[in-house]
Write a structure and sequence with these properties.
The complex is a heterodimer of chains A (about 290) and B (about 270). In chain A, a hairpin with a 5-residue loop joins strand 1 and strand 2. Chain A has 12 helices and 2 strands, in the order H-E-E-H-H-H-H-H-H-H-H-H-H-H. Chain A has a two-stranded antiparallel ribbon. Chain A has a single domain, classed as MetI-like (MetI-like fold, Orthogonal Bundle). Chain A is mainly α and about 290 residues long. Chain B is mainly α and about 270 residues long. Chain B has a single domain, classed as MetI-like fold (Orthogonal Bundle). Helices cover about 80% and strands about 0% of the residues of chain B. In chain B, helix 3 runs parallel beside helix 6, helix 6 crosses helix 8 and helix 7 packs across helix 8. The relative contact order of chain B is 0.14. Classes of the chains: A mainly alpha (about 290), B mainly alpha (about 270). Chains A and B meet through helix 1, helix 3, helix 4, helix 5 and helix 7 of A and helix 1, helix 3, helix 4, helix 5 and helix 6 of B.
Chain lengths: ~290, ~270
């Protein structure tokens, strides 16, 4: 900030500062900070026989977190998130590269075509996959018509189906930051690299990849973390066979009705998020890049 | 010569690859559109029984679905307006003034962006239950404003990064007061960022499932209505409504045209 001394300087800044920053402060404190603190407090609370939360300190919820069923689901959830992220990188990178390096007006249309599917409600699009993959679905119909299979194959309710749904929901969060990063690449750098005798692979690994790694990091963060929570994807496509941590939390706040346990489960997600964000920042990631 | 051939092959390869990705992105949507014309009347409404336009007519009798859609629109419009005002003011204030706790607010803003939505949903649920706010339209709007505001702020902030505040000084030196300067100078300059943020907020609000799922009470939104029907099979009238919404959005995008998007994105890139 440059120093400026104008005749307006003497005016008080308290009122305008209060008017502009006041509402957002109120909102963030009351509806983000306080609720999250309350969740943390609740994770140490007990419930009575009617499943009401009582403010009696216990570590019971955290002890329950370590049971083997849960441990298996944490591992499964992390596995699903990891595979989803890797697929999003492997598919999203070349894809973003191609559309970002397209010359001509087509580029804008290609970019829009990525966004348009996401203007339809995500639930109904996930349901569309069920329509495609179910035993009476389109894909089976096609396979039967082509006599590739005699019996319908059940493609639903597998871990792979859940991963497919996750990739489908989250791949734009990989493509968009990658697109931005790749579009910013200076073409003359690539020419310089090849003029100096670098093979395409060398140019990619030594020039392109380091310059676009920011896009990969922010994309990965925005794919991996939601993946742990998207309970509806595994609900609709995984049919209970590929629960993520989000499913465990959802159950405790709905049918299970054990809010303190659900709160403790949420703390896991909060801790994982904090760790990953710290790593992201260590890698030089820009926090503002995540929100646009 | 050889190089050219190779380039041509690579070019063809990339076209095939991109086509496959677009196919992947659009396949489920084509299912929705096709099924909205499906004459089937038996659950789970999956097998093709011929072409009909009936569902587009029957849609208008499905009052609960239309009501849910109405709720979604009300919530999206109100939350977008509130989030845009709060976010724009906040971004300007945080850019301009130094005050205690600024770093804390900055940190809090990132939470809705990175944290899994389910954590936000249950934390709002618990606090609303704690202070006895009945779940419904009010809690939905509060929740939506909360997760939209940071996105507005980041978009406006991106615009502020290239902002030259000397034009405000010029305005005030020429005799305009703070308010006039704000409306006549500051806002027009920030407009693309504000618009981009508002658009993002609107999209996030319309599509939100997870957070709404925990705070809706009796006020069902359109995504929640879809969620409810997913278990038994999504009826073709839901598909019909989804198709209409899709067509509506595409038309909207083409009318406002890429121009908006171009400005919007270049503002984001800063």
């Amino acid at each position: 900030m440059k120093q400026k001394k104008t005749k307006h300087e003497f005016r008080s800044n308290t009122l305008p500062a209060f008017l502009t920053v006041g509402p957002v402060t109120l909102l963030m404190v009351l509806l983000i900070a306080v609720p999250l603190i309350y969740v943390a407090v609740m994770s140490f609370c007990s419930i009575d026989e009617f499943y009401n939360v009582t403010f009696q300190f216990t570590l019971q919820n955290y002890v329950r977190l370590a049971n083997t069923d849960y441990l298996r689901i944490y591992a499964q959830s992390m596995g699903i998130a990891l595979i989803t992220t890797l697929i999003c990188i492997l598919v999203g990178y070349p894809f973003s590269y191609i559309i970002a390096r397209t010359k001509s007006r087509k580029k804008k249309i290609l970019y829009m075509l990525v966004i348009i599917p996401f203007w339809t409600n995500s639930l109904i699009r996930i349901y569309g996959w069920r329509n495609l993959l179910g035993t009476s679905g389109w894909l089976n119909g096609l396979l039967m018509k082509l006599h590739l299979v005699s019996e319908p194959v059940d493609l639903l309710y597998k871990q792979g189906t859940t991963i497919l749904g996750m990739v489908y929901c989250l791949i734009p969060f990989m493509i968009l930051p990658l697109y931005t990063a790749i579009e910013k690449l200076d073409g003359s750098l690539l020419e310089a690299s090849s003029d100096l005798g670098a093979r395409p692979a060398a140019t990619f690994f030594e020039v392109i990849l380091p310059l676009t790694s920011g896009g990969i990091f922010s994309g990965s963060l925005m794919v991996f973390i939601p993946c742990l929570g998207y309970f509806f994807v595994s609900d609709i496509l995984g049919g209970g066979n590929s629960d993520v941590i989000g499913n465990l939390i959802e159950r405790q706040f709905q049918s299970g009705n054990n809010w303190p346990l659900g709160a403790a489960l949420s703390i896991i997600l909060i801790v994982v998020t904090l760790i990953l964000v710290k790593i992201y920042q260590k890698l030089g990631g820009d926090m503002d890049a995540l929100g646009v | 010569m050889k190089k050219k051939k190779k380039e041509k092959r690579n070019h063809r390869l990339s076209i095939v690859f991109c086509t496959l990705v677009y196919l992947f992105l659009f396949l489920p949507i084509s299912v929705i559109v096709v099924n909205s014309f499906n004459a089937t009347t038996t659950k789970p409404y999956m097998s093709w029984k011929g072409f009909t336009l009936d569902w587009y007519v029957k849609l208008w009798d499905n009052t609960s679905l239309l009501e849910a859609f109405g709720n979604t629109m009300i919530i999206a419009v109100v939350s977008t307006i509130l989030a845009t005002i709060i976010g724009t003011l906040g971004a300007i204030g945080m850019y301009r003034y130094k005050f205690k706790g600024k770093a804390m607010i900055d940190g809090l803003l990132y939470i809705p962006v990175v944290i899994p939505e389910i954590v936000l949903g249950i934390s709002l649920l618990t606090i609303f239950a704690r202070v006895n706010i009945p779940r419904g339209m009010l809690t939905l709007i509060l929740a939506h404003v909360t997760f939209c505001v940071p996105f507005v702020i980041f978009n406006v902030r991106a615009r502020l990064a290239g902002y030259d505040s000397s034009i405000e000084e010029a305005s005030m030196d020429l005799g305009a007061n703070r308010l006039v300067t704000f409306f006549e100078v500051t806002l027009p300059v920030l407009a693309p960022g504000i618009l981009g943020g508002a658009l993002l907020a609107f999209t996030l609000s319309i599509d939100d499932v997870i957070i709404s799922y925990f705070v809706y009470g009796q006020t069902k939104t359109y995504p929640l209505k879809v969620m409810e029907s997913v278990k038994s099979g999504v009826a073709p009238d839901v598909n019909a409504l989804s198709t209409l919404i899709l067509v509506g959005t595409i038309v909207f995008v083409f009318v406002t045209q890429g121009d908006l998007f171009k400005r919007n994105r270049s503002a984001m890139q800063k």
